[in-house]
Amino acid sequence: MEAFDRGLGKGESPIFPNLVFRLKKGVNFDEGDPNYDLFKLAMKVAAHRMNPTFSFMDSSFNAKYGDEISYMGCRTRTIANVNGREVSAGRGNIAPVTINLPRIALKAGKGNIEGFYKEFDKVLELCTKQLIHRFETIANLKVKDLPFLMGQKLYMGSENLKDDDCIREAIKNGTLGIGFIGLAETLKALIGKHHGESKEALELGYDIVKHLREHCDNMTKKYMLNFVAYATPAEGTSGRFVPQDRKKYGLIEGVTDNDFYTNSYHVPVNYEISIFDKIEIEGRFHSLCNGGHISYVELPSSLEHNVDAFEKILKWMAKCDIGYAGINFPIDECKTCGHNGIISEDNCPECGSYDIRRIRRITGYLSTVDRFNDAKKSELEQRVKHC
Predict the structure, then answer these.
(1) What is the pTM of this model?
(2) Domains in the chain, start-ordered, CATH in brackets?
């Protein structure tokens, strides 16, 4: 963390590695814990570099796994296992598929909740068939086809496999993720408000994601494979579905009038809401998305000189049963002279250079803005700052 905080050659912020700091009471979470000093250091670094992100080991759905639970930097969470040991190491998500929730709502029509669920069930069955097909295709690969992952016995269950053996016995320990995008737009299409605007919408949104999770749990029992509900990162799908739906259903306020759909269960990025309300609303969905989840808040600037405020946000996240989260703010750096901070103009205020590096969080990872796709650039422009 100290090296990460120092930065690269001219002090530039590292994009990778994507650090994840695990928080646990009795270990580092509270003052007096033996490693509380490392938590303070992690917050200092994150308030400067936007990483590490934080995983909460004591959340209701993580605590039972002790110190085994871990997240990938984007959000992926692999732990439950109907076929073997419940650990994160040596496993991964075999295949994901993402549901365009707003399209299902648009097809059903405003107020037609029953019709929505009927169509939702059809899509869930289609997703299941697709994932089973993908699993079977991959399962027929041989160990020799994957000489590093399987040949070097890195994947759980590959220990006793020979070169000509199929890898089914190994990858049955992985997960099959059914993800979703655009819960906010789905709710707008169905009842005219999203889950940040009304309690009715929040309850309906919760029931929709719960329905997905229950389907995954049922498929896990049926097929003895690890089906999981996944809060899709939506880097590509955020902009892929909207033009198609707009062409078919027209321009609908709050649904198809943007260049992107809102990430998974997140409150829309352009909705004015406090830090604490946003966290409380999104925290309800983390326990449902057992295949991965993330929440974050947008700050106008770094909290590098106010680590106490940074800690207050993280403590509220823990209270709201968040599993994994990050705190976002702008990082602008002049590549010529090394000046950093918020550079509001096109050129550096110190040396006048136009060679400016602008770092933002895209989903779970950090990226430079020039690498965002058009949909994510549009989303970035609309992000409001939370306070």
Answers:
(1) 0.96
(2) 76-293 (3.20.70.20)
